[in-house]
């Protein structure tokens, strides 16, 4: 079978890698804060100093809410690719179903509720040969 014609072209995810990287950073910070809160015994003194800088889930959801619908849908589809629900070749199908899933406009709540969102988005980008850790922020 022949190679896809767009083999050398980048896939248009409908969202910039900088935005994806920001969501990954926020999601990872929220996860770290939640994990720190669960083990909230010996490290209380260290956490008090960083409390003002702590990223909350509300900051993550507010950031996602500020994105346009196409960007929100792309994040959902990218998380699904990262979770293994879709392959990169099925991107258009994932986007179509993510659009249907986001008809109520609750992408931020849905995404914030996904376990390991930062990892899912990083894995999703990685499936397309993109490395989130290398994106300038």
UniProtKB/TrEMBL annotation:
Where are the compositionally biased (Acidic residues) regions?
32-53
The record's listing under Pfam families reads: DUF3775 (PF12616)
- Residues of the region (Disordered) are 31-53
What InterPro entries does its record include?
DUF3775
Q: Which top-level group of life is the source organism from?
A: Bacteria
- What is the protein's name according to its record? DUF3775 domain-containing protein
């Amino acid at each position: 079978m022949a190679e896809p014609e767009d083999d050398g072209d980048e896939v248009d995810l409908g969202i910039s890698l900088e935005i994806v990287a920001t969501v990954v950073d926020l999601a990872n910070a929220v996860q770290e804060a939640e994990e720190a809160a669960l083990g909230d015994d010996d490290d209380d003194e260290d956490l008090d100093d960083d409390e003002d800088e702590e990223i909350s889930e509300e900051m993550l959801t507010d950031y996602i809410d500020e994105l346009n619908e196409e960007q929100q849908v792309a994040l959902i589809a990218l998380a699904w690719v990262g979770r293994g629900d879709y392959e990169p070749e099925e991107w258009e199908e994932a986007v179509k179903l993510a659009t249907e899933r986001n008809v109520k406009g609750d992408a931020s709540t849905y995404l914030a509720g996904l376990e390991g969102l930062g990892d899912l988005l990083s894995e999703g980008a990685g499936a397309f040969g993109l490395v989130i850790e290398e994106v300038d922020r």
